Amino acid sequence: MAASRPLPSAEPQLAPASQAPAVPGELILGSELLAWRRQRLGEGGRAADLDWLLDLGAGLRWTQLQRVWLDPASPVQLHTGLGELTVLWRQHLECHTPLQYLVGVCPWREFSLAVSPAVLIPRQETEVLADLALALALALPAPAHRPLTWADLGTGSGCLALALARAAPKARGLAVDCSAQALAQAEINLEDAGLLDRVTLHLGQWWEPLRPHWGGLDLVVSNPPYIPTAVLVELEPLVREHEPHLALDGGPDGLEAIRALASGAWAALAPGGWLLLEHHHDQSDAVAELLLACGLVEVTSHRDLEGRWRFAQARRPMPGSRPAWPESNRPPLA
């Protein structure tokens, strides 16, 4: 999805929880941990974020923390010492650095994704996009002479590709990103999940790297950049100052990438194939108009976890149902 800005080498970085050292880094009393926690919250920040750091950064699960509250005299084993956790917490407070980047991992669905400033931090609402994509994938009939083929355009961390690859093991998966660093991050996550053999990675812009597959894509999913450029300055510092703008900036109206996706869909999708997109909460009508204008049918909107219109799906018509096209809007032939 985006160009990266590596963390300074002087900043401490932790391995993802899945790569935590076999021998924990510090054994302390629960009372000492609770005192440390009070001190850190006295410096600022949210308790939920600090507990997340203890979980993903030090291997202290929420249930274990609850036991510490009940029995503060009991010992607690941490993967990472309190001194290093303090450094990370202060960096989070002072520089607004997302904890996911500091720890190097983000839980998403059943996966623990390795993340870096090369990619967006996967959001909870994108899990809804994954659910919608899986429902479409499982309902699609198997093509007669080839495997069912899906693509994830702008794969970033590879979260959507992982969800599809795990749910549809016999399908052929294609993941595209214009950032080599993001694509490398997706490769790491696919390999760690044992799913790399189900997905082929392609470097390039949207549909173009998949030209050999045009006319044969049964399902295409994308979470493209859709924030209007002028709105970027209004985002919270954790996002604005650290997450890749290439994966956020959707141009003056936020629809540049979505226009590219809509305009290429007719040529790239198989007859009856689906395109499924995430978009900004106030773009639903505009996105639906773009999809219809490009000849797609069965345009449907879906709400996110907060009830806002956030997702759109549409499909290429089956043969015999091709609509009449205005000459200025005629899609390229597959």
Short description:
By secondary structure, the chain is α/β, with parallel strands linked by helices.
What would you report as the Rg, rounded to the nearest angstrom?
22 Å
Quantity of strands, as a count: 11
The helix-and-strand class reads alpha/beta
Distance from N terminus to C terminus (CA atoms, Å) equals 26 Å
Main-sheet strand order equals 7-6-5-8-9-11-10
So what's the overall shape?
elongated
> How helical, in percent, are the residues?
25-40%
Low-confidence stretches: 1-23, 324-334
Number of helices: 11
Average of pLDDT: 88
Main beta-sheet strand count, sense and barrel state: 7 strands, mixed
Content of β-strand: 15-25%
Question: N-to-C SSE series?
Answer: EHHHEHHEEHEHEHEEHHEHEE
Walk me through what this model shows.
This protein has 334 residues and is an alpha/beta fold. α1 packs parallel to α4 and α6 runs parallel beside α7.
Protein traits:
334 residues, two-stranded antiparallel ribbon, disordered N terminus, 7-stranded mixed β-sheet, 19% strand, disordered C terminus, alpha/beta
Give the SSE map.
Layout: E1 26-29, H1 30-43, H2 47-58, H3 62-70, E2 75-78, H4 82-95, H5 99-103, E3 105-108, E4 111-114, H6 125-139, E5 149-153, H7 159-167, E6 172-177, H8 180-192, E7 199-203, E8 217-222, H9 237-240, H10 256-268, E9 269-278, H11 284-293, E10 297-303, E11 309-315
Helix pairs in contact: 1-4, 6-7
